Amino acid sequence: MMETKQNRPLIAYIIMSIMFIISIIFNDFISIAGVRPDILLIILIFLVFNEKPIIAIIAAFGFGFLQDVFLPGYIQYWGLSPLIKILIIYGLLKFLPFVERLRGFTFQLSIFGAIIIYNIFYNLLYYSGYVKPLVAFYRYSLPETLYTFLLLFILNMIFPLHNKNR
Amino acid sequence: MLSKLYDFIIRKHLEILTVIFVFISLILLSQTENHVVLRVQSSWQDVSVFLKKPAAEQHRKKKVIEENKQLRMDVFRLNQEVARLQNLGTENERLREMIGFRDTSHYELLPSLIVYKGFKNGSSVITIDKGRDEGVRKDNVIVDKEGLVGRILSPGKRTSIASMIIEPDVRVSVRINPSRVYGILKWHHGNTFVIEDIPTTIDIQPGWTVTTSGLSEVYPPDIPVGVITQVNTSENGFTHMIEGNYNVSFKNLREVFILGHDGN
Description:
The complex is a heterodimer.
Chain A: H1 2-25, H2 39-50, H3 53-70, H4 80-94, H5 96-101, H6 104-126, H7 133-158
Helix pairs in contact in A: 1-2, 2-3, 2-4, 3-4, 4-6, 6-7
Chain B: H1 2-11, H2 13-30, H3 35-104, E1 109-116, E2 125-128, E3 141-144, E4 147-155, E5 160-164, E6 171-177, E7 181-187, E8 192-199, E9 209-212, E10 224-233, E11 239-246, E12 255-259
Antiparallel strand pairs in B: 1-2, 1-12, 2-5, 3-4, 3-12, 4-5, 6-7, 6-9, 7-8, 8-11, 9-10, 10-11
């Protein structure tokens, strides 16, 4: 039984590795009406709750960098993804003691809040000069947040984010 | 001093790392459109295309199937539209001919639409959309551009019931042209009629036309009725058994004209 519990993060990491590959290679195929989930952000949030903060921060930079280099369409803003990802993960780490005390709906709401803040800032900067901030919000930030949160919610049901051994 | 710095680094390692990464990110942001990055990305695209290809093919196939389905539906809709337009074209042509016919006819013609053709196909009674309000009277003659159709049986206020000449009991006094022989025409079957009791001594040829004679109280003279197709001798050997086709295609009739009640 203990072994199974110990294996759970491993399985989660395997799944997230697959998701990582999917997000890097098959990003185009998981889009719904042009809206793509940020799978890298999901992995980062999982790392925040399950790994040491330093690993989460390094991963935030690394994933952000990978996103800018490998995901088409992000090249113009090389550095934008790591910047926003680091800031949001750092913020989440700072609020972690408070967030970990939350349960149920308020916990989910705080995660949703983190994702939407990330998407708002990211899209605001990414589409600055092209799309009006309000349009960027309801056309990109909100749908992307919902899609990402939905995936995270499903993952959270299988592998809970709360790490009791932390 | 060093130990203090070491302690500070240990205590604030997360913040220090975050600041370093933020700094690097800002430097990267200032290096947009860097040729090295562009090269890395194009190389990555070459690799990823190879990996994406099967999925992309599958995706394309799915898309093509969906597109094909949509196109089939569009073709069906367009075919429907073409059929509708062809129908409208035919109707337009027919109406134009009718207008031409009305303008050249020496009768006063009231155009009317058939609103009901009977419960069953082949019914000889029709309902038209003109009635007493438009001056329609009983026994007014109905024609279409091809010739005689029938007469009004019962005029209503806004609609009228009319009888067509393709009824077993209907007899029409006709004249065969150019011989100007008079006879009584009756419906045979389908769109055909017969004229009997014309002596064999009179020459009648297929292709000759049949018009109303004017001897009837109802039908005015010289309204085309049909064309003779067959001339046989009846069993008694003294009279012709003349068969012919009506000019009017009663089955496809949609619009008619009502002749003025005085026939002029």
